[in-house]
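TL;DR need structure tokens for one chain.
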Amino acid sequence: MQIFLVLFSVLLTLLILMHKGKGGGLSDMFGGGLTQNAGTSGVAEKNLNRWTVIIALLWVALIIALGLMTKFGVI
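>> reply
TL;DR here they are.
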């Protein structure tokens, strides 16, 4: 289960980094505002949001499961 946790952590990080910047933050300071027109389409962004939420929920559930297993001495 710990291997899945590492995989989900890396995947979640990559999915979050793939999101389009909303502007006004550090991404604009370092040139993120220059690529606003090269962003993803609406459908692709919605699918990316769905996958990010699904992986995040699985990641949280896995952390809770590992915590409970550790507490009760299963692992």
